[in-house]
Amino acid sequence: MFTDFLSYKLERAGKKLVRIDKWYPSSKICSCCGKLKKELKLEDRIYSCTCGNQMNRDENAAINIWGRLEEYRELNLIQKKFPDSPKT
Question: pTM of the entire structure?
Fold first, then answer.
């Protein structure tokens, strides 16, 4: 219900709500190399990949979600109204 209300308000403002599947493994995908780490427990707060990437799992997930937003932009499903990606 909340997302329906939010979507309605955004449409009135000329914007669009972008939804990501709740099962999208944003915290299990390396934001550097894209490798999927199948075994990642909730208590594992640091994401470590074989490529050498080590970071807070929530930051890793946020970068991956931002990357999904970039994919939507490339497909012209939404307009670019946000600052550039936080990736360094």
Answer: 0.69
